[in-house]
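RECORD TYPE: inverse folding
INPUT: structure tokens
STRUCTURE:
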């Protein structure tokens, strides 16, 4: 028994030609033109696959809420959208809203690689990995206990989504330096049950 949880990363906040920066918890950008297109592609993808969500939670930032509402708008009798505060993107500290090259210049390639492969925060980033892992465990278990058999939708950001993958991957996957990043407009599926077990079914699926 259990329930499939679809974890979606919001669409793009930058378009071709824009200066891309590291957008965190304090930078509340809306979806860009290409980001809206990604959200619409997700909506059509889930609709055509017959994936009907019976619960939906999104982070409080514009980019996550817009993505979630676009997905739900394509479904018949969609659930109400709840807000999950822990799904807000992490605070990148001095690197918030900075171009990626400046971020690398400050923290170094090794620190960025440790973040991408093991979710080890670089110096100055405001993130509590243990607290985020526990928040994901609580959220997945709570969704699995709901009196519904349908899948649940969660829309969040890259910095937050990786901790869901960490708790759902098996020991072998966790020990291998796997890429934890969830691409914009992509999703993963975690199967969760009411006793707190979580199993990774897929990651970085894109319509």
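DESIGNED SEQUENCE:
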């Amino acid at each position: 028994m259990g329930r499939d949880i679809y974890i979606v990363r919001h669409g793009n906040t930058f378009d071709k030609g824009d200066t891309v920066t590291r957008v965190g918890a304090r930078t509340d950008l809306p979806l860009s033109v290409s980001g809206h297109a990604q959200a619409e592609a997700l909506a059509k993808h889930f609709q055509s696959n017959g994936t009907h969500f019976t619960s939906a939670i999104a982070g409080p930032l514009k980019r996550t809420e817009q993505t979630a509402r676009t997905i739900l708008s394509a479904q018949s009798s969609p659930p109400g959208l709840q807000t999950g505060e822990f799904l807000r993107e992490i605070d990148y500290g001095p690197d918030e809203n900075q171009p990626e090259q400046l971020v690398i210049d400050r923290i170094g390639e090794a620190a960025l690689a440790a973040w991408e492969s093991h979710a080890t925060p670089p110096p100055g980033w405001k993130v509590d990995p243990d607290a985020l892992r526990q928040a994901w465990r609580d959220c997945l278990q709570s969704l699995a206990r709901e009196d519904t058999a349908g899948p649940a939708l969660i829309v969040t950001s890259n910095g937050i989504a990786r901790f869901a993958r960490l708790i759902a991957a098996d020991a072998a996957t966790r020990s291998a330096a796997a890429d934890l990043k969830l691409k914009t407009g992509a999703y993963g599926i975690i199967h969760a049950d009411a006793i707190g077990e979580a199993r990774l079914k897929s990651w970085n699926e894109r319509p």
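NOTES: The chain has one domain: 3-205.
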